[in-house]
Amino acid sequence: MDYAEIRLGNGDVFVVEGALDEVERKLSDAARSGHARLAWFTAEGGDGSIGINPGQVAALKAAER
Question: What's the predicted TM-score (pTM) here?
Answer without folding.
Answer: 0.90
